[in-house]
Amino acid sequence: MKLFKSLQKIGLATSLLASVLFSGVAGATETEPVWENAQKRGMLRCGAAVAPPYVIRDPKTGEYSGVYVDLCREFAETHLGVNAVFVDTTWDNIIAGLQAGKWDMSLALNRKPKRAMAVGFTISPMYQEVSFVFNGENPKLSANARYLNDFDKKGITLAVMSGTVQDQGLTSVIQNAKILRLPGNDETRLALISRRADVLVDAADTNRIFTSINKEWAIDVAPTPALLKQGIALAVRKDVSWSDIEVFNIFLEEKIAKGDVARLAQMYTEKSIEAAE
Predict the structure, then answer these.
(1) For residues 178 and 242, is the Cβ–Cβ distance under 8 A?
(2) Cβ count near 212 (within 10 Å)
(3) Measured on CA atoms in the order 161, 162, 166, 167, is the torsion positive or negative?
(4) How many whole angstroms separate alpha carbon 277 and alpha carbon 97?
(5) Which of 44, 35, 95 is nearest to 233 (CA)?
(6) Are the beta carbons of 107 and 98 closer than 8 angstroms?
(7) What fold, for 34-126+230-276?
(8) Using one digit for the tens of pLDDT, what is the confidence trace for 129-166?
(9) CATH topology assigned to domain 128-229
(10) Which among 105, 83, 63, 52 has a CA at the least distance from the CA of 267?
């Protein structure tokens, strides 16, 4: 009888342990079928904050274009059979809006370890470096300025889009200059043009467009040491399965290998310059 009771206790304990382990595994495997949900909804919602040539918004029509816009649209139409819908957002809210379910993907986000703890990332079809643009006639700065220390001086104001990785990068290294945080690309450019700011800090690809338009006075510099060099990816919610992310990765791998991404980048850079001239 004692042996029987002992076996009963062991069996109960084993059952309880198995139940706990099973529930833990089941909870861990609960994932969001993001592509299936988009197909049921009839649309793939993409959160978009402006940063040419990656994400461009026509101020007159509100229509979106750009490298990452085209990638999102092609994937939605060709592989999911639905339309892509682009939701206006800012760099301050592009992750929070994704987490809150306001859209299914966020476009053109730099891959960072801290961000990867909050969202899931695809591979990077492009890579980003940050550059500084300034007026060559600005007496506060030498035309030969190249080092971070050349820009990190009292009396110098650096304009940057709030909530971006370039904002985070500046915050971590700038000790003496003033950081002017503004909501969007247009505002930071206007700050430099109006001399409210001495330096425009943005993605090198974006600054290349601005410098080409204002080559009479604009100097574009990749600072030493580099502020950052990171992959630019698309993001989904953290509970999206890796198998779903891999579907998009396979799509991106082919676009990269065929040279489509490089062609899109060149095309949208040229279009942005033409539109501003």
Answers:
(1) no
(2) 16
(3) positive
(4) 34
(5) 95
(6) no
(7) D-Maltodextrin-Binding Protein; domain 2 (3.40.190)
(8) 999 999 999 999 999 999 999 999 999 999 999 999 99
(9) D-Maltodextrin-Binding Protein; domain 2 (3.40.190)
(10) 52
